[in-house]
């Protein structure tokens, strides 16, 4: 189940909630009860391991 990070624009409360893809997004802040909540998006980290991803990657020393 995905985890979503939310922040209230009114009071600044940050919280994380596990929700199904079919669940509606949270709009009411659990702390101040105002309808000022929005999702906070962040970049997912990606690490490529192994050979063959890009020609400048370190490899076996073979010429390109």
| Biggest sheet statistics | 3 strands, antiparallel
> If strands are numbered along the chain, what order do they take across the biggest sheet?
2-1-3
* Beta-strand segment tally: 3
What would you call the structural class?
mainly beta
Report the end-to-end length measured between terminal Cα atoms. 43 Å
What coarse outline follows from CA principal-axis ratios? elongated
H/I helix tally: 0
Brief synopsis:
The protein is an all-beta fold. It has strands at 3-8, 14-18, 37-40.
Reconstruct the topology from this structure.
Blueprint: E1 3-8, E2 14-18, E3 37-40
Antiparallel strand pairs: 1-2, 1-3
Would you mind describing this structure in some detail?
0% of the residues lie in helices and 23% in strands. The chain contains no helices and 3 strands. The chain has a 3-stranded antiparallel sheet with strand order 2-1-3, with no helix packed on it. The protein is elongated and about 55 Å long. The mean pLDDT is 83.
Keywords for this entry:
elongated, 64 residues, 3-stranded antiparallel sheet, mainly beta, Regulatory_FmdB_Zinc_ribbon, 23% strand
């Amino acid at each position: 189940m995905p985890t979503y990070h939310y922040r209230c624009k009114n009071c600044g409360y940050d919280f994380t909630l596990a929700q199904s893809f079919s669940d509606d997004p949270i709009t009411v802040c659990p702390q101040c009860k105002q309808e000022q909540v929005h999702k906070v998006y962040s970049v997912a980290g990606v690490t490529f391991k192994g050979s063959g991803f890009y020609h400048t990657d370190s490899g076996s020393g073979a010429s390109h």
